[in-house]
Write a structure and sequence with these properties.
Layout lengths: L1 E5 L2 E5 L5 E2 L12 E4 L10 E5 L6 E5 L14 H7 L8 E8 L5 E3 L5 E4 L4 E4 L11 E2 L5
Antiparallel strand pairs: 1-2, 3-4, 4-5, 5-6, 6-7, 7-8, 7-9, 8-11, 9-10
């Protein structure tokens, strides 16, 4: 076990259980290893990934289909290759969620994260020419 000091306090993690981003994240290409922060509520749709390399950086992720049921992403074959899986293996499409100071909440539908538990790898892809936005407001509750 290793420990890092984060804004959430000191956390211990197993270096064998980190999520590896072989190419980093957009704007943070140098960051490759993240740990999933424990979630206090089982029904919470959000989860946080904490950088191992830079303990002050953490990102919130959510499955976008609960807010945008029509949002479908089909990763390209090279994404599966980077993840070390085939298209038949289990993978998840996740998006970064941002809580802004003006109390708005947005999802980055333009650059989702493709994650597979099989290899604990993740790749952020950019959906160019998709029409999706990096700051897509959450739909209003009806």
């Amino acid at each position: 076990m290793k420990t890092i000091q984060t804004r959430f306090g000191e956390i211990s993690y197993d270096p064998e259980k980190v999520i590896r981003f072989p190419e980093g994240l957009a704007g943070f290409e140098q960051l490759r290893d993240f740990v999933v922060m424990p979630n206090k509520r089982d029904d919470d749709p959000l989860f946080c990934i904490q950088s191992v390399e830079q303990a002050h950086l953490a990102f919130l992720l959510v499955t976008p289909d609960q807010f945008f049921p029509d949002y479908k992403v089909t990763p390209a074959p090279e994404v599966f290759e980077k993840l070390g899986i085939t298209s038949r293996d289990q993978y998840f499409i996740l998006t970064m969620i941002t809580f802004h100071q003006d109390d708005t909440i947005t999802l980055n539908l333009l650059a989702p994260v493709v994650y597979t538990p099989k290899t604990d790898r993740a790749v952020q892809i950019i959906l160019e020419a998709s029409g999706y936005k990096a700051k897509t407001p959450l739909p209003q509750k009806q």
